[in-house]
Each structure stands twice: as structure tokens, then as C-alpha cells.
Fold:
Amino acid sequence: MSAETEAAIRRWAAAKHLPGPALARWLALDEAARAALLALAQELWLRTAQLAKTLELLDEIALREGRNTLSILESETIKNAIASGGSAPARASRMLEALRMLRFPRLTRLRSELESDLRALGLPAGLRVRLPRELASDELTLELRATTRAELEAGLRTLQRIGPDLARIIERLGGDDEV
Amino acid sequence: MKFELDAILVEEACCESALARRIRARAGATIAISYVDDPRTFAFADRSASDAFGAGKRRLIVSRKRGGFVVACPAASSKFACCGYLVMNLASNCPMDCSYCFLQEHLADNPGFQVYANYAEAFDELERTSRAAAGRSLRIGTGELADSLAFDSLTGISLELVEFFARQSNLVLELKTKTDEIDNLMRVDSRGRTLVSWTLSPDAVFRASERGTAAPANRIAAARRVLEAGYRVAFHLDPIIAYPDAPADYAALLEALFDAIAPEKISFMSLGGLRMTPALRRIVRRRFPADPMMVGEDVLSPDGRFRAFTPLRVGLYRALHDRIRRAGLAAPLYLCMEPASVHERVFGSRPVSPGAIGEGLLQERG
Structure:
């Protein structure tokens, strides 16, 4: 069983040109986990980079949480992402997003709350507010697009109206809440 | 000597130096000592070793430093609110092995543990620096490319350093350490011109990431002893690692610190979050794959370093700042390698100029 699984993994890796370190990481998993990952790679048609990223995230989650890899792959979060319907590539993307949620739980939670706050502002089409990528800074980006004076004035009025809400968001970006 | 060496190499031109003689006398018979014409090549990374950096740490090289000793802090940048620190490099690399140490990248090609036999030449440089800075006080540290005290039982350099600075009017020496190697310090009178600073971490970080260092409780106990002996003391919470239990663990660490040392006796404190360049992060993952502290919620910051995402990091700074001030620390508290906007979020104001921060750190307290 072990030899068969290893051979199948090596075939998959060769076909996809998986880099040596990623293959070594895969083969270092215990038998059940490496087989589960192979099944996942085949079912979701994982691309090379996706498989390498999956291995990296699995390693890091296992280390952070003191869990074994198989228990992560069999967690409700991952199973739900895989079973969520749609095409194999779409499910692969959702599976990776679920892994990132497990890897960055506080970041994911806060970003989700802030995005929800932004959606609740009901911004008009000409006005965009962007959070910093991965909340890696405390900078909020505002973009106002206008082609007429009326659009400009409407955008500025909206900005004035939502000013206090944006101030609250920027305070949260600056560590105002306990994360 | 509390660390392991595989070999000692001495540059032939330095073999009769006071430093080489002391090291020979204290190293013990079990460590082979070799004499070489030019030791610099022995400091290069041994690419055949599975851990070239770790191997370099165990190869002590006594040599003559070819360049100057005193330089501006290498972490200084126009991007950050800096403290105007000057660095005196008397050694390169460190016998301890912390997972997050920037030397793993900085000295990757040159990891030999070098100690400079001609360190007394640094005193001439310092006197010139002192004259050039007339009217201003300068803080000069030896703990940038090496721990200031980790090898002091072997080299005894701290004795001469403390005595030299005791004679200066506008220079203060900062010895930065994670050890409790203070025996030599207890033998000399610093006349208040030497400040000993400890980098402190919670026990969880110490156990996971700080190999070869003294336990945090022992560092605090050592700080109390040197304070009683007339030294000034300071503390760096750096790197602060934002793991899930960090708020409680850092609060407990501060409580232990202030229980042992009254806040008004502390000259300054600094805070700095864990930061790693992508290259350092790769090295750390390779050398310490099982350290859970090195897989935090770190993201690539605008300055090109991985740091805990901003709200998490700044929230932790603010909580620590609040706790430190409530404990009664009136001395300066600054952030290391953070932009002015983070400084403002934590302290409520933009930072003053680097020189002014440095001057503030040198005011007499307690």
C-alpha cells in the first residue's frame, strides 16, 4: 500500500513538474495523510503551485495547532470547501481559501468583519474604499471617480456622510480592537 | 564558558595579544587551538555542513579587525522612527541560537564567530567620536552583531569597556544581552556610564526559540544585581511575537519584571515586533522547522519584511504600552523599526528626531 501510494505520488509529481522540496515534503507526511492529499490532488485537479501551497499551509497549520495533517484535511472546514459544488478548479480555490482561514484565523476574521462594515456603507458606483492587502499596513485607500460636477459633488457628500464610519474602520486597522 | 566550541583559530599576528592569551588560558584543554596566517577564509560558511550557520557559531576566530569599529546602527532607516544608536562591533556572531535572529541572513556567508584582538583600537575611535559630538551624549552598543556578554567569561572584554566608558563624559555604553553572564561587571565600577540592557521574552518564546540563552527569570535576576552594583538597566521586548497567548504572557513577563525592578529604576524600554525579510524567513523555516513561534499570522509589510498583520501587531503594542505606563515607567519607551504612523497610533504622537530619542534615553533616572 505504502509503495503504491508513493509511486502514485511520484507519478503525479513528475507529470506536474512538482519541485523536489515540495515532493519531499509530501512524502514526509504519514501514509494516511499523503494518500488523502493524493486523492485530493486528483479530485480537485490541483495545479502544481496549488499543491505546493497546500503542502506549505498544511505544514504550518499542523505546527501552529499541534495537529496532524490528516486531521486538518478531514476537518469540517476543509471537507465543506471540497464538497461545496461547482467545478474542480473552483472547489480547489475554495479549499485553499479554507486552508488560509485555518492558517490565519485572526486575520481572516478581522478582514471579514471590516469587509462587512464596508459593504454596509452602501457605497455608490463612483466611490471605492479598499482595505490594505492582507491588513499589512494601516492605510485605507479611497477612490472617487467622477466625470461631471454633479457626480463629484454627490461623491463628496457621500464621503462626508460616511466619514465617521470610515474613521471607525481606520481606527480598527490601527489596532483599536483586541484582535 | 556556557557554550560549546568545536575549534579556536587564532591569527598568527594576534597570537601574543592579551585577548588571545586570555582565551588560551580559559578555553580548556579539550578545544583544539590552531594558528593561521589569515583567518578570514575560516569565517566563510562551510557549504558542506548541513547547517553552515550553526557550524560557524562553534568556530571561534581570534583575528584583527581590518575596518573601523564604530558605525551607525544598521537597522536605522529613513522609513523608521529610530533611536540614534551607534554600534561598536567587537565581535561577529553569537554563541546562542535564536530562531528569529537576523544574523542568520546578515552573516550567512560569513558565520564564523569572530572576536577582534585589536579591540582596544576602538577606544581611539570612540575618543574621536566623543570629541566630534561635543555637547551631545551618545549611546554606543556592542550588542548588534553579537550578544555583548555571551562570551565575556572567555574574553573578559567587558572589564576594559566599562572602565573606558567610566572615564567618558558624553558617552554611554550599552551592553545588550540575553545571558546572565555578569560576573565581570560586578568587579568594576561603571560610574553610571554603562547601561546593561536585557532582551526579554515570555517563557513560551524562550523555550521555543531562544536556544542557549538564560531563562527570562534569570535575566531579570541578573538585571537586579547589576542595578544594585551601580549600573543603569534597560529592557527590550523585541521581538514581540503575536502568538495567541501573547497578551497574557507578555503581561505576566512585565509583572515579573516590575516586581523585581522598580519602574523608576529603569532607564528606558523598547518594543519591537517580530520582523523577517523573505530571505531570513526561508532560512528560519529551514533551520527551525518545528518552532511554532515562527509560523505566526505574518504578512508581507510595505517595507518588504514579514510582520504580524498591522491591527494585531499595533494592538499588542498598545496593550503593552498601556501596561508599562500604568506600572509607573516614566522613562522613555520607543518602538524599534516601526514607521512613524505606528508610533503615532501607539503613543499618540509622531516620533521626535532620532538624535532626540537617543538623548532622551541617556537622561539620568532613579
